[in-house]
């Protein structure tokens, strides 16, 4: 709930203009807005959308001509609905949807897809199975990569390949299409929803493949290399997996190991290849190395799923450090560490 504005000093120019439009009412406000350029329409629409309740005394201070209306009509209310109603009086629906989408995006856009991503992967898969492959691809480009990686196998092998191919080829989802998808998801799943923006499409798919079960990724690789060799190879170059950690120098690898807690590190190394395990151990001081070896030997049998989760945690730690520019990831052959 937005708090009523009490101090006119806190209003900027666009907000003061928005109050004027609200005081004029829909018909006169719409007539006046038609005379503005796109930039001013965006600014005033954004202001109307976020104003909330405007007490009469504030409206009187913003514009003296409003005194009669404010005195008899009380407070005026700015809302998304009021802003959209005004725009529809003089703009086509497609343009109104575009403007409102841009206004709504920064306010609450991420919440819907974050909430949708929090659903069980089987629930998501059951929901999207009845949709067209292109719609499924659009939805999975908006959810978190680790969630999409769990949902894809539930679609079946052939359909999964079709959807992945469409995701790779999808530069962006047209605004009106995304609005329809979000409206459907909102009504059927979420209590509140808007829109969100995605990362670079190839990097998004690289992140998804990083989270995909290794054995499953190996299965789809051959098919994708045949179907779409160039874009798929470009995506693979942006991937960073647990095996790639061996290419980090000792100092960087030590930093990565400090990003995880508990038994994550010994669990990850229990299922690692010998050369990778040795690289990790060599990056540690002697005492820390001995303690890690003791933990690994005392763990007993471990499940492959748990090993994969632990290894993914280390990869996530490396990616976070790289994003913070604490370490540099070797993503091509020129960055190989030679020892």
UniProtKB/TrEMBL annotation:
It is found in: Bacterial flagellum basal body; Cell membrane. Residues 122-194 form the Flagellar motor switch protein FliG middle domain. The keyword Ribonucleoprotein does not apply. Pfam families: FliG_C, FliG_M, FliG_N. It comes from the Bacteria. Residues 223-329 form the Flagellar motor switch protein FliG C-terminal domain. Residues 10-106 form the Flagellar motor switch protein FliG N-terminal domain. It is a peripheral membrane protein. Keywords: Bacterial flagellum, Cell membrane, Cell projection, Chemotaxis, Cilium, Flagellar rotation, Flagellum, Membrane. FliG is one of three proteins (FliG, FliN, FliM) that forms the rotor-mounted switch complex (C ring), located at the base of the basal body. This complex interacts with the CheY and CheZ chemotaxis proteins, in addition to contacting components of the motor that determine the direction of flagellar rotation. This is Flagellar motor switch protein FliG. The lineage of its organism: Bacteria, Pseudomonadati, Pseudomonadota, Alphaproteobacteria, Rhodobacterales.
